[in-house]
Design goal:
- There is one protein chain.
- By secondary structure, the protein is mainly alpha-helical.
- The chain has one domain.
- The chain is built from 5 helices and no strands.
- The longest helix is centred in the middle third of the chain and has 22 residues.
- 19% of the residues are buried.
Length: 109
């Protein structure tokens, strides 16, 4: 009886994993997650180097963005990064942000 239960749980987990993999992200979603991850890593790098939030905002204002939503998104990501107590390296922030973003986009579908 116990092995039957374990087999049922294993099969349901495998089926769930297959369903998640079947949901492909659109190219635009991948781009947004990648861009946001890079923005978060840059904000973390500025934060760790001692740049103030005000100065980081000023740097964002000087950047020429290709899409209209990018400036406000960059501001929000930078604000959240500075509000966080995290002292992780920028590369770890990039990876974490990307994974969480992809997970969110897949769950939304």
């Amino acid at each position: 009886m116990r092995t039957v239960g374990i087999m049922l749980i294993a099969c349901s987990l495998a089926g769930g994993a297959a369903a998640v993999q079947a949901r492909e992200l659109r190219e635009g979603d991948k781009y947004m997650c990648s861009w946001g991850a890079g923005t978060a890593a840059k904000a973390q790098e500025l934060k760790l180097s001692g740049v103030s939030l005000y100065a980081a905002r000023q740097k964002i204002q000087t950047i020429k963005f290709s899409k209209s939503w990018m400036r406000m998104m960059a501001m929000g990501i930078t604000e959240q990064t500075y509000d966080s107590r995290s002292r992780l390296k920028p590369e770890a922030i990039r990876q974490s942000f990307y994974q969480d973003c992809v997970r969110y986009k897949v769950a939304r579908k």
